[in-house]
Amino acid sequence: MRPDGAADTTRTEEVQGVNAAPSAGKLSGVAPSVRTLRVLVLWDIDRTLLYVGEVDRQAYREAFAEVVGRPAERLPARGTGVTMPRAVAGMLLDNGVPEMDVPRLLPRMLEIVPQRFAAHLEDVRRDGVLMPGAVESLAAVAVEPDIVASVVTGNLRPNALVKLTVFGLDAYLDPDVGGYSSDHDHRPALVAVAQGRAAARYGVAFDRTSTVVVGDSLEDVRTGLEGGARVVGVAAGTTSAQALEEAGADVVLPDLTDPNRLLEAIRLLTGSATS
Ligand SMILES: [Mg+2]
Questions:
Q1: CA 91 to ligand 1 centroid distance, Å
Q2: Does domain 12-51+129-270 have CATH number 3.40.50.1000?
Q3: Tell me: the pLDDT tens digits for 232-269?
Q4: Ligand 1 centre and the CA of 46: distance in Å?
C-alpha cells in the first residue's frame, strides 16, 4: 500500500498458480517467477468463448415448471447478454406470473436454475462448442505476465463455473476475481465487483484505463461503458460489428481467431506496452 492508503497501481506477483495456462510455454521466455500486474481483462462467456446451445433455456424451462407448477410458454431471448436474474424475472412476467409474485418466486427460480443446469452436464459436453479462436485468445492473454484475466458475465456463478470447467477454460483465467450475476443483477455493476476482487487478491487497483471487457453483445458494451472498462467487441455472436461499434465498443473484432489483434487492442486501450 502507498503511504496515502491507496493501493499501488503495480505489484509483483508470483506467476505460479495464478493465470498460468497449461500450455503456457511463452512464460519460459518471460520473467522467471515474478510479474508486474497492470491490466485486468474480463471475458464474457456465452457466445464470446463458448456456446451451450439450448441448455440454458432448458434449465429455465424446467425451473419454471417446478416453481410455478405449469409449463412455460415463452423463454428468454437468446444471446442478449442480459443477466440471468433479469432474464428469469422477465420470463416470469412474460408467462403471466403476476408482478406481485415475482419477488417471492424469483429467488426460488435462481436457486433451481443452477441445479437444473448442472443436471444437464452431459448435454453441455455434447452440445457445447467453443467459439472460433477462443482457446488461442484465452491462452495468448493468459501468458502475458502483466495481465490478470477473469470473467464478467450474466451467468449465475455456478453456471459460469460449469461452463468454464467443462471446456477447461478455467485454466486460462482466475474465476475467483470475476463478476457474476449472483453478485448483482445489473450487469455494469459487475465490473466494479471484479475490479474490487482483483484489487483485494493482487493488491493492484484497476480502473477504466486498465480494465478491458471482451464480449459479443450490446450488454457487454454497456457493461464496460457504464461499469468502468474499455470494451473489445467480438462480432461472432448474434450482434453485428456495426451494432457493437455504434453502441460504443472501443475496438471491434470479427471473431477471436487472431489473438495478436486482440492483444494489440488490449495494449492500445490500456496504454500498456507489449511485453
Ligand atoms: Mg455473450
A1: 19
A2: yes
A3: 999 999 999 999 999 999 999 999 999 999 999 999 99
A4: 4
